[in-house]
Amino acid sequence: MPNKPATIARCALPAGLVLWLLATPALAQQFSREQDIVDLRLGQRVLVDDGSCPAGQIKEVAGSQMTTSGVVRTRKCIPRLGTKRR
Fold first, then answer.
1. What is the pTM of this model?
2. Residue ranges per domain, the chain?
């Protein structure tokens, strides 16, 4: 018969990792103006609530490509999740 506490411990770590990965997008930084983003890193995504996207959406700015002059930013409107924060 398998050891019950060891089985629970083996399942808890992967379950916790999955929950952490699902919660990570909810913790994205949010700015009110794109000019406030000072140091965008490659792969980093931030939300900008400047009113440029349609209702129910928010602008996502991502560091998409590294060039000799720095990180190239891409912008797209994505569905707004949760309530509006100030």
1. 0.62
2. 4-79
